[in-house]
Amino acid sequence: MERVLTPEDVAEVLVPRNVLQARVRELGARISSDYEGREPVLVTVLKGGLFFMADLCRAVDIDCTLDFMAVSGYGPASFGGVVRITKDLDEDITGRNVIVVEDIIDTGLTLNYLLGVLRAHGPASLEVCVLLDKDVRRIVDLPIAYRGFSITDRYVVGYGLDHRQYLRNLPYVAVLKEEAVR
Ligand code: 5GP
User: Fold this and answer.
1) Mean pLDDT, the chain, whole residue set
2) Mutational test site, ligand 1, from 5, 103, 106, max ligand atoms within 8 Å of CB
3) Mind giving me the DSSP string for 40-105?
4) Over 60: is that where the pLDDT of 149 sits?
């Protein structure tokens, strides 16, 4: 049986808690000023985006609503980013100002697919707010309105991101020791 992962398995903290929180507050302030009077709906994909969404929406001080999607086959291995939606949005986003709140973008294939699905609902606007961007890995070009951090091509965990479902609850973004990832 594979063992439980703990903070002991962390090799390096890539983005410390205070740096994360400060950046999330900045993104929230920018969204608040850009979307004043437009009541955006923030949409995130479970489970990874949950922590970023929870902090970001509390840093947004204008009226906004939240919605959630869940997908399976989600991840870099899924062919062309095509995923099965296992939980769809609760609200109709037609004519709404939608901001997709993502934890991390790697190749961009998954998000590209999801944006296509959301666009088909006819939102008034559709933008992306991503916390961590591995831009060197990008295969499809994506318009990203709000970016937390650009990071190099390293496998990270914490602040919503898991390894085998563990370590999502780390309050910082970290790189694991090699033996933990094997
Ligand atoms: P993409 O379609 O952009 O290649 O893949 C995006 C998805 O791959 C992310 O939403 C996430 O689920 C997963 N992913 C990509 N890089 C990482 C990483 O460094 N750590 C973890 N835990 N997941 C990642």
Assistant:
1) 94
2) 106
3) -EEEEEETTTHHHHHHHHHH--S--EEEEEEEES-STTSGGG--EEEE--SS--TT-EEEEEEEEE
4) yes
